[in-house]
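Hello,

I think I submitted the flavin-adenine dinucleotide job twice by accident. Can you confirm which output corresponds to this input? Input:
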Amino acid sequence: MFEPDGITQELAVRLKAFMARHVYPNEARYYAEAEQLGPWGVYPVVEELKPLARAEGLWNLFLPPHAGETGLTNLQYAPLCEIMGRSLMAPEVFNCAAPDTGNMEVLLRYGTPEQQAQWLAPLLAGETRSSFAMTEPEVASSDATNVACAIVRDGDDYVINGRKWYTTGATDPRCRIIILMGKTAPDHPDRHRQQSMILVPKDTPGVTVLRPLPVLGFYGVPDRASEVLFDNVRVPASNILLGEGRGFEIAQGRLGPGRIHHCMRLIGLAERTLERMCRRAEQRSPFGTALADQSVTLERIAEARLAIEQCRLLTLKAAHMMDTVGNKAARAEIAMIKIAAPAMAQKVVDNAMQLFGGGGTANDHLLSAAFATARLLRLADGPDEVHRNQLARFELKRHRNTDPRETGGDAHVLSLEEVKQRFAHLRPGAPGYPWA
Ligand SMILES: Cc1cc2nc3c(=O)[nH]c(=O)nc-3n(C[C@H](O)[C@H](O)[C@H](O)COP(=O)(O)OP(=O)(O)OC[C@H]3O[C@@H](n4cnc5c(N)ncnc54)[C@H](O)[C@@H]3O)c2cc1C
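Support: Only one job matched these inputs. Its output is below.
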């Protein structure tokens, strides 16, 4: 089921070869540069590899078919994204990294030709990077209707005031554009029409990147989380995306593909972690027995294999549905995989850390950065609980619309009369009483 087609297979062969030749051998350098240059730096190794990937046609593979151009479907992209996800540095090398892919899709779908020429073209060329600023420190942003940043019309401009954090990528010197979500109509009776999205060039006066934020102590890799202040930031009214009050609609569209890309990458990360775990299990023998012969190890390896396969199938199903019935109809599947994949990857990496012993907590075996990645993805793009609630509501609604007589799914409470009739014989002394 979901066998990769010829195009996908051919690209997969080339991607794997590129990973073996250029990515894996350079990972130690990548982490060293990240540590040395920090979250405000550009890591030379990535910039060196990008032109090679582009020259080999392994570039912007995330792009869906658009405006008469060819592109890969979600189902075609899934196995390729998985291969890239095996290394935390790879997605950027192939210009397929978050948050740029989501932002590029927004510009592609909702941007005007002028906005696309100015902001999308350099992103597609890998010359610039971008950020997405929705979350705010002062409100519970998992409920996006709480987002309070003010976007106020003033003549031909909008003036923006607010504080954002976890704005991934804002410390990156290549980041030129921020897609910001705020409120243009805070009093609109429909809570989902209060928000708008607007393009804010990072060099606009009043935009200050206040600080990089560590993720479980890591700065820069695996995530350039940042806190950003917007203080009387003035941008032309034409920077609004799609129109006032359409922010929620864009957010829904943006997060669908973005969420599933994260899941595809996590499957690759878990797959590689399992491979390393198996090798290590055969190399080390505490108390005279190879780790690979300990039942606890066998159990953990088997559980990891099971969980990875389950998540991969669910991801492919979600991708297939997005391609065939659309992102909206695939919402339940997207929610399911967004819950399942980070938890799966976190558990696989956690068990690998245990098997690797003390060294598992350093990044020598790439495990601590992998753990941070899986863990942060239980929050980024919406915390687990929010997706679970949404999924449960879909489920409740689904059963509201089915006939329990056809499905046998009735939750009918027996009436007193029914109990009396059906169970009278179970009372001692009653005719037909079954027990002596
Ligand atoms: C590394 C990293 C990168 C990120 N990148 C970005 C980015 O680029 N741009 C951006 O805008 N945001 C980004 N985020 C922010 C992320 O999307 C938010 O942290 C997330 O949506 C939760 O919002 P919050 O932090 O305000 O938590 P809150 O809304 O305060 O929620 C706190 C906790 O409450 C619980 N909770 C929430 N709702 C429910 C519910 N309905 N039922 C039960 N429990 C619930 C959950 O456990 C949740 O974690 C990133 C986060 C991280 C960690």
